[in-house]
Amino acid sequence: MSRTTRFLSTASVALLAAAFSSAAAFASDSGCEPEFEALSRMATTPTHSFTTRTAALRGGSKPLTSEAIHAGGSIYFKVNEKWIRSALTPQEELRQEQENRKNNKATCRHLREELVNGEAAVVYSIHGETEDAKSDTQLWISKSKGLLLRQEIDLDVGGQLGKSHSSTRYEYNNVQAPQL
Questions:
Q1: Residue 176 lies in a domain
Q2: Do the beta carbons of residue 21 and residue 96 sit within 8 Å?
Q3: Is 112 inside any structural domain?
């Protein structure tokens, strides 16, 4: 694997992990159970996610798109049109999320109910602040399955890294590990 590919794969893994854990990291108070439960289920449910991200670091102009698959006890990321397996397992991801929950506080609110691709969903917001970041997240959670259908995150880490926005949709049908 070339140095550029290793860098891009590491950066993609870090960005996707940050997107996944930033909402989960703030879901710690007693009002955030539905949100945390939906995020936790991703570690044990075959999931294919599609993310579009804009960030101040890259000038905010050209969106970065990425994909991730949780299947067969592994996490996979698509980097430069090639799938790679993450060194992080879904169980390790869940443990990290639980640790983040212990160390952070949040404000969670039920916003509304609406349809996502024809499926009834409950929309929640999570606002959180730590020493390092401020995050505003909206989660669309399936009313019937309790699974995350969509996620929007506005993250501000200040300084040169500044603000970023990510939008993720989740699919659960016919999810299988990709060919490496």
A1: no
A2: yes
A3: yes
